[in-house]
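TASK: fixed-backbone design
INPUT:
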C-alpha cells in the first residue's frame, strides 16, 4: 500500500534503538537486576511496578497493564501518532523512514504544516488582543492577570470576515490548510471566511504544547453561541483533549490531583489563584478517553459541575466514564457549585482557602453513585431494594478487580439487602494449598518463543504439529513463521506486530512471565515441547485412522500408514 511503512523497516529500526535510552529520557529508571524499574508514568502509584527489559526490548506495568515497544511508549507518553513515533525513532537512529510507493502519505505530509499554521494563528490572535482596547478591557473586567494572558496565550479574533484569512492565507495552499485546520467556515455560495470573529480566543494545546485547535468566548451578548470550539480536524478530537492540561503538566513534575471544570475562564481563574491543577472538557461530556487521560496524570480527580439538573446529568456521565477505570488507588469526587456561581466567580469571592474547603467537602464517587442509582427508589420496600440492585449491579461489574469493587458490592448489599455474588477475579492468585496449573506444551512453546524469537530458526518446515487440533496451535505456527521471516524480531517488535489483535493481551502476559530458565535450558525446553507436539500429532493421526478402520472407510494408503504408525515409525518428518 503506498505510504505504508514496511514491517521490515520497523523491525530494523527497533533493533537499532535501545528502549531503555528512549524511556530514560522521560522517566527516571533504576537498575533492578537484569531489568530497569520506575514508578509508572501512565498512572499514579507509590511503589515501582513499571519495568523495562533491555533483553526483550519492551516495557510492562504490573499496576495498570501498560506495555509495548519503544514505539508504543512514544505514542502513549508523547501522544504521537504511529507514523510520528516512527519518524522520531528514525531521527534518533539517524535513518530515513521508508515508505512503500516512495513517500509518506499526503495526509501525513501536512501535519507539521498544520501545527505551524495553528501556532501562527495563536500568535496572530494574541497580537490582536494587544491591539484592541475593547478586548483588553473585557479581559481586564474578568480579572485576568497579564501573567495568565501570557501563560495561556489568550488572544482576540477581530470582528472581521477575513482577519485571519488575510493574515495567514497568502496562497491557495495555505488557505486549504486553514480550512483543514477548522479555521474557516463556508458561506451559502461556498465562499470561505473566518470561523472565529469578535471572540476572546483560547488556544487548545496537545501534550507537546502545540496548538491543535481553539475555543472562542463571545465578546458581546448577541453574537452567537457563548462558546465556539474548532470542529473536528486531523489534529483535534474534542473527546480526547482537555483544555489546560499542558499548563498543568508544565507547572507540576508530579500532578497531585486534577480539577475538571466546564469553562475556559474557570480554568484560567483557578490557575491564577493558585489551583494549577484545573482542566476543562471542551463543550462535551466527560468521555472514556478523558477519564483515561485524567487518571494517567493523577490518581485523584475532582469533577466540578453546576448543582442544577444539567450539572447532575454531566456528573453522572462522568461516573459512567470513570467506573471502568477505577483501579485501586484511584479516587474521584464531585463538587457541585451553588446556583448562580461558577468556579471563576466562586474562587474570586471565597479565595483559594474557601475553594479548598469546598473540595475537602466534595462528594465521593461512591456516595454520589448510590444517591443517583437510588433516586426515586423506596428503600423501605422490597421492590425498591430490588430496583436499586438491578440498576447498580451492571455498573459496579465494570469496575476493575480490587478492593474498591468489592466494597461497592458490599455497600450495595447493605443498602438493598440482596446478596451479591462477586464475579471471580481474573487476576486473583491461587489459594493457599492449591497447585498452580501446569503450562500446556503449546503455551510453553509460545512463551519461550515470544521471549526469544530467535528460537524459530531452530525449526525447519514442514511442521507436523501444525495439524494438531489443540487451542493455540495456529498461533504458534503463525509465530514461528513470523519469527523465521523476520530474523531481527525482538520481543518488543513482535508484540508491536500483534498490537490491536485479540491475542495481544495474552502474548503480553507471556512476554513478562518468569520462566526461571537460562538461554540454553530455554532452547532445550522449546525444542522438547515441539518434539512432544509432534508425538501428539502422530497419536492424533493414529486415533483418526483407527476410527476410520472401525467405520470401514479406510483406504489402502491409509491402511499402510496405520501399519507404520502402529509400528511406531512416523510417516512424517518431525523437524
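OUTPUT:
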Amino acid at each position: 500500500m503506498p505510504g505504508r511503512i514496511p514491517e521490515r523497516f520497523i523491525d530494523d529500526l527497533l533493533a537499532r534503538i535501545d528502549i531503555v535510552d528512549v524511556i530514560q529520557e522521560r522517566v527516571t529508571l533504576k537498575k533492578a537486576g537484569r531489568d530497569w524499574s520506575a514508578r509508572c508514568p501512565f498512572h499514579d502509584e507509590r511503589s515501582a511496578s513499571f519495568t523495562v527489559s533491555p533483553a526483550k526490548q519492551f516495557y510492562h506495568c504490573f499496576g495498570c497493564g501498560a506495555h509495548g515497544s519503544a514505539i508504543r511508549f512514544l505514542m502513549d507518553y508523547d501522544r504521537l501518532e504511529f507514523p510520528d513515533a516512527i519518524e522520531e525513532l528514525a531521527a534518533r537512529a539517524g535513518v530515513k523512514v521508508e515508505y512503500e510507493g516512495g513517500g509518506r502519505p499526503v495526509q501525513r505530509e501536512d501535519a507539521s504544516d498544520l501545527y505551524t499554521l495553528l501556532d501562527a494563528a495563536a500568535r496572530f490572535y494574541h497580537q490582536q488582543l494587544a491591539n484592541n482596547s475593547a478586548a483588553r478591557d473585557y479581559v481586564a473586567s474578568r480579572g485576568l492577570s497579564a501573567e495568565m494572558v501570557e501563560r495561556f496565550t489568550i488572544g482576540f479574533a477581530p470582528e472581521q470576515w477575513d482577519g485571519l484569512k488575510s493574515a495567514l492565507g497568502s496562497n491557495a495552499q495555505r488557505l486549504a490548510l486553514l480550512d483543514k485546520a477548522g479555521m474557516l467556515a463556508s458561506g451559502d455560495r461556498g465562499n470561505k471566511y473566518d470561523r472565529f470573529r469578535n471572540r476572546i480566543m483560547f488556544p487548545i494545546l496537545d501534550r507537546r504544547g502545540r496548538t491543535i485547535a481553539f475555543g472562542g468566548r463571545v465578546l458581546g451578548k448577541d453574537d452567537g453561541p457563548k462558546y465556539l470550539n474548532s470542529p473536528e480536524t486531523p489534529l483535534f478530537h474534542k473527546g480526547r483533549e482537555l483544555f489546560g492540561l499542558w499548563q498543568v503538566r508544565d507547572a507540576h513534575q508530579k500532578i497531585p490531583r486534577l480539577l475538571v471544570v466546564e469553562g475556559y475562564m474557570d480554568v484560567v481563574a483557578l490557575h491564577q489563584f493558585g489551583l494549577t491543577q484545573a482542566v476543562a472538557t471542551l463543550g462535551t461530556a466527560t468521555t472514556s478517553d478523558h477519564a483515561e487521560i485524567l487518571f494517567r496524570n493523577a490518581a485523584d480527580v475532582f469533577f466540578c459541575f453546576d448543582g442544577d439538573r444539567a450539572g447532575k446529568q454531566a456528573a453522572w456521565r462522568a461516573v459512567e466514564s470513570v467506573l471502568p477505570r477505577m483501579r485501586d488507588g484511584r479516587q474521584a469526587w464531585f463538587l457541585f457549585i451553588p446556583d448562580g456561581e461558577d468556579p471563576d466567580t466562586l474562587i474570586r469571592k471565597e479565595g483559594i482557602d474557601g475553594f479548598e474547603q469546598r473540595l475537602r467537602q466534595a462528594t465521593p464517587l461512591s456516595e454520589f453513585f448510590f444517591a443517583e442509582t437510588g433516586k426515586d427508589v423506596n428503600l423501605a420496600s422490597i421492590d425498591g431494594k430490588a430496583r436499586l440492585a438491578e440498576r447498580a449491579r451492571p455498573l459496579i461489574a465494570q469496575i476493575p478487580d480490587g478492593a474498591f469493587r468489592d466494597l461497592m458490592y458490599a455497600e450495595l448489599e447493605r443498602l438493598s439487602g440482596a446478596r451479591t455474588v462477586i464475579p471471580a477475579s481474573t487476576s486473583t492468585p491461587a489459594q493457599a494449598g492449591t497447585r498452580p496449573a501446569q503450562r500446556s506444551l503449546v503455551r510453553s512453546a509460545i512463551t519461550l518463543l515470544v521471549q526469544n524469537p530467535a528460537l524459530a530458526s531452530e525449526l525447519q518446515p514442514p511442521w507436523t504439529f501444525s495439524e494438531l487440533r489443540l487451542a493455540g496451535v495456529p498461533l504458534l505456527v503463525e509465530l514461528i513463521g513470523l519469527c523465521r521471516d523476520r530474523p531481527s524480531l525482538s520481543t518488543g517488535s513482535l508484540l508491536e506486530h500483534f498490537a490491536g489483535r485479540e491475542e495481544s493481551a495474552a502474548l503480553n502476559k507471556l512476554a513478562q512471565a518468569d520462566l526461571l530458565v537460562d538461554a540454553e535450558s530455554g532452547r532445550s525446553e522449546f525444542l522438547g515441547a515441539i518434539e512432544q507436539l509432534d508425538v501428539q500429532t502422530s497419536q492424533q493421526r493414529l486415533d483418526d485412522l483407527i476410527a476410520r478402520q472401525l467405520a470401514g472407510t479406510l483406504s489402502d494408503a491409509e491402511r499402510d500408514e496405520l501399519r507404520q504408525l502402529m509400528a511406531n515409525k512416523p510417516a512424517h518428518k518431525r523437524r
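COMMENT: The domain at 374-416 is CATH 1.20.50 (Pheromone ER-1).
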